[in-house]
Amino acid sequence: MVKSDVKVLGAWPSPFVMRARIALNIKSVDYEFLEETLGSKSELLLKSNPIHKKIPVLIHQDKPVCESLIIVHYVDEVWSSGPSILPSDPYDRAIARFWAAYLDEKWFPSMRGMASAQGEEAKKAAVDQFVEGLNLMEDAYVKLSKGKPFFGGDKIGYLDIAFGCFLAWLRVTEKTSGMKFLDEARTPHLAKWAVSFCADPAVKDVMPETEKLAEFAKLLAKFKPAPPK
Q1: What DSSP string describes 27-59?
Q2: Pairing, β 32-35 against β 6-10
Q3: 193-207 pLDDT per residue, tens
């Protein structure tokens, strides 16, 4: 059996690993998925990403590429014959990168912050910050999609991948908090977009099931130190 010259080091629950896998699926690239074990790091991972020692890592022809959005960009450039992932216009590319950075630096941390907030006031502030971010993304979608199904237009693009990879964890957050954040009343455009994104052939096989991910979240909590009292 001939081994693939494309490998992804990752774990199925990771939204950042999903980015690499979706990008490869869009380009119809065959790859080998090497699952990392929770609580340990393989020798291949430590060798491939000695700086950050974290997933995902794309290995192409024995050369590692690290960081999820950098991987998406790399995949788009290397397999250029497939559908484009990044916008062709330089300004549109810059805007997509801006919002992707916002998601990683501000919005996703605010979602995690809701779970760790202590006290009613802190929890309310965390929820308000998270909801504000969703409203910003709703507005961004309306402006960037220009009436088409995705941020990237008619097909999934860079910002769709950057945002859509968090949808499974958003569902888990809704389940554990008992609050609905992404719905037709609050964010009608994003709610419709999310359905289309999750149903796309490049996405549906790597999008974690909510129940399975919720069980993993409980397991993950055991690995984290208890908050100070």
Answers
A1: TT---EEEEPPTT---HHHHHH-TTT--S-EEE
A2: parallel
A3: 999 999 999 999 999
Between the alpha carbon of residue 168 and those of residues 6, 21, 49, 164, 210, the distances in Å are 26, 15, 26, 8, 6
Provide the 3-class DSSP secondary structure of residue 4: coil
Radius of gyration of the chain (CA): 18
Side chain identity at residue 124, one-letter code:
K
Question: Average pLDDT in the 82-88 region?
Answer: 95
| Secondary structure of residue 90 in the 3-state scheme | helix
* pTM score over 0.85: yes
Predicted pLDDT of residue 224: 58
Query: Taking each helix axis from N to C terminus, what angle separates 167-177 and 210-223, rounded to the nearest 10 degrees?
Result: 80
pLDDT at site 123: 86
d(CA 38, CA 25): 25
Distance CA 223, CA 81 (A): 43
Q: Which residue has the tokens 């919002």?
A: 99
How many Å apart are CA 142 and CA 93, to the nearest integer? Answer: 17
- Would you state the pLDDT for residue 122? 87
Residue 87: partners with Cβ closer than 8 Å, 6 or more residues away: 93, 96, 152, 157, 158
102-114 pLDDT, tens digit each: 999 999 999 988 8
The amino acid at 78: V
Cis preceding-peptide flag for 13 (omega within 30 of 0): no
> What number is the average pLDDT over the span 67-74?
98
